[in-house]
Design a protein that fits this description.
Rossmann fold, alpha/beta, binds glutamine, 23 strands, globular
Length: 540
Amino acid sequence: MKQKFIFITGGVMSGIGKGITTASIFHILQKKGYKVTAMKIDPYVNVDAGTMNPVEHGEIFVTDDGAECDQDIGNYERFSEKNLSKDNYLTTGKVYQTVITKERNLEYNGKCVEVVPHIPNETISRIKKAGRNADADFVLIEIGGTVGEYQNLLFLEAARMMHLKSPQDVLFLLVSYLPIPKTVGEMKTKPTQNANRILNEAGIQPDIIIGRASHPIDKARKEKISTFCNIDPDDVISAPDAGSIYEVPLIFNNEKIGERILKKLGLPKKKNNLDKWEEFVSRVKSLKKTVKIAIVGKYFETGDFVLSDSYISVIEAIKHASWSLNHKEEIVWLSSEKYEKDKQALKDIKNYDGVIIPGGFGTRGIEGKINVIEYCRKNNIPFLGLCLGMQLAVIEFARNVCNLKEASSVEFDKNCPHPVINIMEEQRGVLEKKNYGGTMRLGSYKCKINPKTKSFKAYKKEDIDERHRHRFEVNNDYREKLEEGGLVIAGTNPKHDLVEIIEIKKHPFFVGVQFHPEYKSRPLSPHPLFVEFIRKSIQR
Ligand code: GLN
């Protein structure tokens, strides 16, 4: 079959679920037996997501091959159960960087290099490369932002040009929003009509419109959208708010989105089997018992609002693990700064079944997190430290158990007397040159687990691969001292002898990992370390 390309664009406003839409279509087409891949194109000038502040952009997701991507790549991986790569994420910055490098290398043979067509052409060649490398029947391309923004016009232009060359292989989806203003009491289609018109101005006629709204779209409105947006009423897919993102593939399947896509691309009908997914979704819906997990972080306050986007993979991993143990998750956000001075506040921590300290950078909130870790250690509260969370657990242990009162990380204090967390050797020069972009220890690395540990009990194997994103590590000069104090080095990188996992023996579950297990958790195959952590939290 000739490769097909489906562009997913967004209308009216951001945050209405283009990523989940793309991930859901990925799932449905895969279950019809096709090979699928998905790509996110972000309109940022940043070359990748690694230099973006999570409060502004949400979590930075990391692939096996070390790409620092938008969080949607995580959604694609979770819904498709596939590992994606550098090919699957593109930004304006990356496209321009490539074109400028090519120009400097005389690869355009002396031609004037122009925004059009060279930028869309480079975009098209990247889209095709992603399809080729994945050997995919379908390439889904999610264009970040909303139609009508100046920023993503060149990507729409790339989409239009691909359609012009082979209209039978390219499809356009518009994910739009239908508000129901309280004072009006009716679902309004005009913003969607306008979004469609903007897309038309870019030379694109959507083939399918996904109507996001708090309620299902009725027949009358489907017909209205059909008339004003120039599409068949059956191509208006109703996407009401769902109880969980994992219900969305089932909702789309009921609306026959797969059938519409195949029909429009001239492909024969094909059955799909979503039984396993359906079973999983209905099981989750019926869960009654809850497990209460606190996440102590600092990337969730923006103005008067609390956003959880910065820790999305951690949240999903907690959900997957809890659901697999027949519990609903109750996640509580705790701002680390609160525990900085107010030691009394620490007492609240015992109200939670388990505590997670996720990844992070910089000094803000650090001492608060260390205080929480000390409380968890001393009060037998299940604790999971992820990357920075692990480093802080080592600092806490060094200070309060090994009596190295001035222990710290050189990330927070360059000249600290006891740098139990040190800069990795190869990172030293990188930081001196301020060469920050894409230079951390990134992607998948091996770890060997000691069979006499809790981590081994969780993973049930000695050799694992996990994804990383950090510059600092446990200082091997302090290893002996820490082990004498009772810290268990449960896993190390076999090649470079870096500490990857630490544990404490006399504690129900106190584990810190230098990597990010959350990136590899999937709804139907939850991450073993999270499962073990949640199991102990439930027991508590
Ligand atoms: N800031 C720490 C480091 O660079 C931890 C990074 C993280 O949590 N991802 O090593």
